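Private note to self, pasted from the team thread so I don't lose it. Backbone tokens:
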């Protein structure tokens, strides 16, 4: 009984934490497409076949009972293609706009995500359907995912860059202030501690990881109590090949060991979508 957890890099580790809490006893196969990171720089026509091909290799090798796409940028684009091609349940990751619009007291909500995510029709439709009476500002960040990966691996990040990416989320209209920021990228929760320090006023930060884990639990249920199978180790496969020492330590800290059947390293893509 295994769960495939797929991300463009290591941001999906924020989802892994919640999945472990709600679905103990299942093996996690974590796949990070670090050779293709960040997905926000891809042309849509190139990203879809890449992810479909990666999924095919993963499903053939590990036969999971369910898959999670722990990446907003990918989920808002490729879910139809994956569900058409594969029969197993696949849970995507989308900005939690509905709960944010329900919880806001000021009526001002910001969604912080990649430029690709905030401009996709799927995201715009979520805002239209669920914003209720809230005013939702979509903020596309070009550098936060990279900052998060650096921070997660123990590197010093540029706080001025972080601040410039964050500040457009804070809106004041008369006596009203933004009171909720939706984190529309699974990398961003790892920066929340730093972002709180830079925030001009307190806000609530909403991320989708818990909702994803609940959805997976609803689809496949807990491990049967009479299951006597010895649980196999959780593993990580990175498409760029053997991880760096810092990334290796990070993955180990999340309880992941290198896969015994690693992928042949994939080439990094040619970036074409500077405006996406």
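Design output:
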């Amino acid at each position: 009984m295994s769960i495939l957890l797929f991300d463009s890099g290591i941001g999906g580790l924020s989802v892994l934490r919640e999945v472990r809490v709600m679905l103990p006893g299942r093996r996690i196969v974590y796949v990070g497409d670090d050779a293709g990171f960040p997905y926000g720089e891809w042309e849509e026509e190139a990203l879809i076949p890449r992810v479909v091909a990666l999924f095919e290799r993963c499903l053939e090798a590990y036969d999971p009972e369910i898959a999670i796409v722990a990446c907003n940028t990918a989920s808002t684009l490729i879910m139809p293609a994956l569900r058409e091609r594969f029969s197993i349940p696949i849970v995507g990751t989308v900005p939690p706009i509905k709960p944010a619009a329900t919880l806001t007291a000021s009526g001002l909500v910001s969604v912080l995500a990649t430029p690709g995510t905030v401009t996709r029709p799927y995201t715009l439709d979520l805002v239209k359907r669920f914003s209720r009476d809230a005013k939702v500002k979509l903020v596309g960040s070009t550098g936060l995912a990279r900052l998060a990966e650096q921070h997660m691996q123990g590197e010093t990040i540029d706080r001025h860059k972080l601040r410039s990416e964050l500040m457009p989320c804070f809106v004041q209209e008369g006596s009203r202030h933004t009171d909720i920021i939706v984190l529309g990228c699974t990398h961003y929760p790892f920066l929340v501690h730093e972002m709180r320090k830079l925030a001009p006023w307190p806000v609530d930060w909403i991320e989708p990881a818990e909702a994803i884990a609940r959805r997976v639990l609803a689809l496949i249920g807990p491990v049967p109590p009479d299951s006597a199978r010895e649980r196999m180790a959780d593993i990580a496969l990175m498409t760029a090949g053997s991880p760096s020492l810092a990334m290796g330590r990070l993955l180990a800290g999340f309880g992941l060991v290198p896969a015994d059947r690693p992928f042949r390293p994939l080439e990094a893509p040619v970036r074409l979508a500077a405006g996406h």
